[in-house]
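Good day; I would like, with your permission, to put a structural problem before you. What I wish to show you is a protein chain and, alongside it, a tokenised description of its three-dimensional fold. Please examine both parts with care and let me know of anything in them that strikes you as inconsistent. Thank you for your consideration; the sequence and its tokens are set out here:

***
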Amino acid sequence: MISALPLPAIFALFAVSAGIICICGIAMTGRADTLADRTGLGEALVGAVILGAATSLSGVTVSVTAALDGRASLAFSNSVGGIAAQTAFLAVADMAFRKANLEHAAAEATNLIQGVLLVFLLSLPFAAMAAPEVTIWAIHPVSIAIPVIYLLGMVVSRQVREEPMWKPVNTKETRHDTCEDEDDENTGKSTGRLAAEFTVLMIAMGLAGWMISRTGSALIDQIGLSASLVGALMTAVATSLPELVTTVAAVRRGALQLAVGGIIGGNMFDTLFLSAADVAYRDGSLYHAANTQDYFWISTSILMTTALLAGLIVRERQGPARIGIDSLSLLGLYGAAIAIQMVM
């Protein structure tokens, strides 16, 4: 039992698992970019579906494992806390892109529609909480609605990419999604081999996520920390590290739509954690078992996503301190949320 180990050993396992997730995230970025070019799906869509889902696997493992253990707060806060952390990572990526504001250069209609869908998906748990606790085989109807809406959203996103009714104004700072910059490391590899390598890395991240869940639960038991605190600021951030690594790596590669799409798409995929955790939680509705601290992180995620959408629409060329006002807003909102969580 991990909970029986000494505290330093638990922290060591937590750190090693987070490191594995980071390393796998770095290796996955180039492969995802190459697959986007070869399949013709585009960086924004591949970032949202393939890279976003793959880098989220460790997070869903944490939420499902916690729910199976009856830890509703940890399962819930890990799901939504990661969304806030990953959105804040875009501000870090903005710092890595020195030519202009990232949200200006990565203008893409697909990212806008996915951002709107994300706000809609994040609003559903509030609707579930406000409604009576009705379940079918201990599963709340919202947990069925979330994956259905997610899949419909992917169809809409593909339509927006293929036949956009809105296009950004091109400027000298705008970077387009092209198929011309396949990196040298992956050029000689077949598409099948790239997909196989991507799958192996994804499995490794899932196993590391399981270890993150076990060590997080052990820390709650041994130190007596709040499950919301551990879920939102420890397990969620640790399992979100691939998004930080892949986003910065994608920006440095010039794959800006992949970077922004990976974050927004990963956040959309993270809402599926709630459905999976509710299915795994056998004591009723997960949405009613969660507490106000858990829902606080959904509010934070909605506010941060709204700020990001505003940045993608306004497209400020260059803000103060060489990052956009929207990125400063993301950092400010996330920092304020952490400070409030510490005193809750």
Confidence is low (pLDDT under 50) at residues 179-184.
